[in-house]
Amino acid sequence: HLRLDRMKSVRCTEENYRHFSEVCSYKDRFDTADYALKTFNMFGGELCEIELSCNAKILEQVIDRFGDKIFIKNVTDDTFCFSYDVAISEALVTWIMNYGDKISVISPDELKNMIIERTEAILNTYK
To answer: What is the DSSP string of 28-86?
Structure first.
């Protein structure tokens, strides 16, 4: 995806366009809503299955972000877990960190490490 607000010196060319099925996983139709759910603030990244454990108090916010078709599991009075395919990006890290101790990353390790690195960088700012 491209940010139109950042484009400069745009010009028309005679090049043929490529069908979206050549450059993404959507084959029959491009599902804009699904695509938006998988990208945080339109930041690209490697699509990966994440698993999060969340405080039950933020269920509504999770559904607002990921939609009501997520499969919620391991439900207790206090927590729930879910998995979702999403682009791993700094925007995702920011979204998770907005909820502080109300969300923890179960997997993948790459995302856990990104959270740890960001947390350590913030902590070092205040030392």
So the answer is: SS--HHHHHHHSBTTB--EEEEEEEEEEGGGHHHHHHHH-TT--EES--SSEEEEEEEE
**At residue 9, what are phi and psi to the nearest 5 degrees?**
55, 45
pTM over 0.85: no
Q: pLDDT tens-digit profile of 38-60? A: 565 555 667 889 999 999 999 99
From residue 48, how far is each of 39, 106, 109, 110, 111 by CA, in Å? 11, 13, 11, 10, 10
Of 97, 92, 103, residue with least CA distance to 59: 103
Torsion sign over Cα 109, 113, 116, 119: negative
